[in-house]
Amino acid sequence: MIAQAAFELRLLMRNGEQLLLTLIIPVALLLGVTLVPAMPLSAPAGAERVPEALGGVLAVAIIASAFTSLAISVGFDRRSGALLMLATTPLSRSGILGARALATMGMVAIQVVLLVITAMALGWRPGAAAIALPAFALMGTAAFAALGFALGGAVRAEATLALANAIFLALVAVGGTTFPASALPGPLAALVSLLPSSGLADLLRWSTGAAGDASLALDVAVVILWGLAGTLVASRTFRWR
Amino acid sequence: MDAACLEGVVVAYPGGRTALAGLDLTVASGKVTVLLGPNGAGKSTAVGVLAGLIRPDAGHAEVLGGSPGRLDARRRLNVMVQDDGLPTGAHPAEIVRHVARLRGAPATARPLIEMLGLDQLGRTTIRRLSGGERRRVSLACALVGEPDVVILDEPTAGLDPRGRSIVWDAIAELRDRGRSVLLCTHLLDEAEALADDIAIIAGGRTRASGSLASLLPDGTERVTFDGPLHLEVAGLVQALPEGSRVEEVSPGRYRIDGDASPQILATVASWCAQHGVQPRNLSVGAESLSDAYWRLTEEPGAQP
Which end of chain B is more exposed for a tag (fewer CB within 10 A), N or C? Predict the structure, then answer.
């Protein structure tokens, strides 16, 4: 399973579209959110804003890898028969999905390192809360991977491609990631704060030291519940072809 | 012991189409079994059942003395499916090495990469390979490890003559090493060249199975010839002795039922001369595999 995960991570790192989605867009977003004054964040543009921006963009990066990229690759690998080809090898079916999840975690680790380095170049210094960052990142990756398997394992490849990208854009724009849900108008803010994107971003913003309205227990519950829902749906509807 | 067998296997797809309607198939140990049948006959579904990818709705499937798809079966049985499922962004030799590692036999990759000329493809990704090149990669993946049973679903489809010859050599070598092979193909010359046993299936059922000789039942010699498609043969029937029948057994191939005799041969030749028909391959002989294939796959109920 580890050999398969390493092989998949190597292929991911070679795929230009995937790198655009998982590395280039998040880094560009971090720079943009930090430096563009018009962004609706609590701190003014510049170094003071980096903690808040970094937390949100880390959430965007995790969603890109664990949800969008994973759902699309599962969708197309179902159609091409790649999952079935693997299913004829000694790798078990849980091993195939486990390897995909493990490769995703490897990708997320690379994203986190890259974004943290970029943030530090912009003046960010990790505080004590940053100890929780890897745990929150792992939890978010697991939850969004479950949702990614649920989407990519049930829907046709082209529909997965469209949906995974559309949902990604929506979550980046108004999912409580790039800027917190509280910046949205009243009822929408309450609704969005129940999305896993908002929960994860709040947790990550807390760990990067941003002043915010994070209610940690609620955010953890939101992320875990969405992850469980994704796992339940995926375990019932996942199709190998 | 048989390497693999299916007994009365039924597979129905959603929407009501029955892919297999009680298929029997035996892959004898150490032999090459060829599975013949028209498109949609159920060959690939049978392969899917043996590979453990498709669960039969009824009947019994067995691979190496146990259920298909269990770990021991996945270790000892390799499959080359039609949708090869190769990762499109990977390089040919890299995939073969990876599959060999998954099969716990990394050392088996190198000889196959060399034999199938995959190192010449270098760092071209799978999505840029031609169909034939891609088949070679897929074949190498089906041969790595030390499989006891190898299933090849149309391995030579779309290959040039040299590519076909490489695949045929690889199959012959597997047999020489005592492996069991199930080969699905549409090519009758491929079946004749490689098969120890042949199974002909159509409409999800087995029409005939056994050695090549046993599929050509009576050995009765008949007159046959090839000509234009769909000849109007009523006149020929009249010229022949009372009670003779002329049948177009496959498109453009005609058989005169009744004992073959020099008189019948002469009558056919002169009728053809009068009608300006060139009777190619006019001959006297027993049924060929091609004749048997057409007979067995066109019986009523053979088409789904």
Answer: N
| Number of residues that this document lists for chain B | 304
| B205 conformational bin, left if phi > 0, alpha if psi -120 to 50, beta if neither | beta
What is the pLDDT, as a whole number, of residue B299?
A: 59
pLDDT of B301 higher than 60: no
Task: Kindly tell me the burial class for residue A15, based on how many C-beta atoms sit within 10 Å of its own C-beta (0-12, 13-18, 19 or more).
Answer: middle
**Beta bridge pairs of residue B206:** B201
Instruction: Identify the helix (H) or strand (E) that includes residue B71.
Output: helix B71-76
- Please tell me which residue of chain A has the smallest CA distance to B91: A11
Can you tell me the distance from the alpha carbon of B171 to that of B175, in angstroms, rounded to the nearest whole number? 6
Spatial strand order of the sheet with B77-80 comes to: B77-80, B149-153, B180-185, B32-36, B197-202, B205-211
- pLDDT tens, position by position, B126-167: 999 998 899 999 999 999 998 999 999 999 988 888 889 989
Residues B127/B91, Cβ–Cβ less than 8 Å? no
> For residue A76, what are the contacts with CB-CB under 8 A and spacing of at least 6?
A82, A157, A160, A161
Closest partner residue to A90 (CB to CB) among B81, B83, B103 is: B103
Distances (CA, A) of A127 to A120, A135, A179, A206, A210: 12, 15, 21, 10, 10
**H/E element, A108:** helix A93-121
Q: Write out pLDDT tens, residues A176-223.
A: 999 999 889 889 999 999 999 999 999 999 999 987 666 899 999 999
Residues of B within an 8 Å Cβ radius of A: 51-53, 69, 71, 74-75, 77-79, 81, 83-90, 98-99, 101-104, 141
Please tell me the distance in Å from B166's CA to the nearest CA on chain A: 23
ipTM: 0.89
A11 and B84 within 8 Å at the Cβ level: the answer is: no
Which residues, 6 or more positions from B198, have their beta carbon under 8 angstroms from its beta carbon? B33, B34, B36, B191, B208, B209, B210, B211, B212, B215, B289
Q: How far is CA A141 from CA A70, A137, A179, A224, B7, in A?
A: 11, 6, 20, 11, 46
Tell me whether residues B101 and A88 touch, CB distance under 8 A.
no
Q: Give the minimum alpha-carbon distance from B84 to chain A in angstroms, rounded to a whole number.
A: 7
What residues does B21 pair with on adjacent strands? B10
Alpha-carbon span B153 to B174, nearest angstrom? 16
Residue A122 has pLDDT above 70, yes or no: yes
Residue identified by tokens 């004054």 is A37
- Over the Cα atoms of chain B, what is R_g? 22
Q: Do B53 and A80 touch (CB under 8 A)?
A: no
Residue range A38-73, pLDDT digits in tens: 888 888 888 889 999 999 999 999 999 999 999 999
